[in-house]
Amino acid sequence: MEYLGVEYRVVQGIKRGFWKWSVEIATGKKSGTSDSKAAAMAAAQRAIKNALEPDRGPLSRP
């Protein structure tokens, strides 16, 4: 699958209701597990988005 130009993988684990996700980006490999396919996809997309966003730093108030 692909999100923001970065490929990621979501595969079903051996146990029922167990999903694994992985992403390879320039900063390294990120992976994890989730209890549903939708949650695994969301986690992988969140990891990609966090890796691609520039560091915003602390919030500043006017």
| Helical stretch tally | 1
Shape: elongated
Radius of gyration: 14 Å
Strand/helix succession: EEEEH
Biggest sheet, spatial arrangement of strands: 1-2-3-4
Taking the sheet with the most strands, its summary is: 4 strands, antiparallel
Helix content: 25-40%
What structural class do you assign from the helix and strand content?
A: alpha+beta
Annotation, overall tally of beta strands = 4
Structurally, how many domains make up the residues?
1
Report low-confidence residues grouped into runs of 5 or more.
Answer: none
Mean pLDDT: 87
Please report the distance between the alpha carbons of the first and last residues. 41 Å
**Strand percentage, roughly?**
35-45%
Keywords, separated by commas or semicolons:
single chain, 62 residues, 4-stranded antiparallel sheet, 26% helix
Describe this structure in words.
By secondary structure, the protein is an alpha+beta fold. The chain has one domain (2-52). It contains one helix and four strands; from the N terminus they run E-E-E-E-H. The relative contact order is 0.24.
In short:
The protein is of the alpha+beta class. It has one helix and four strands, in the order ββββα.
Reconstruct the topology from this structure.
Elements: E1 2-3, E2 6-12, E3 19-25, E4 28-34, H1 37-52
Antiparallel strand pairs: 1-2, 2-3, 3-4
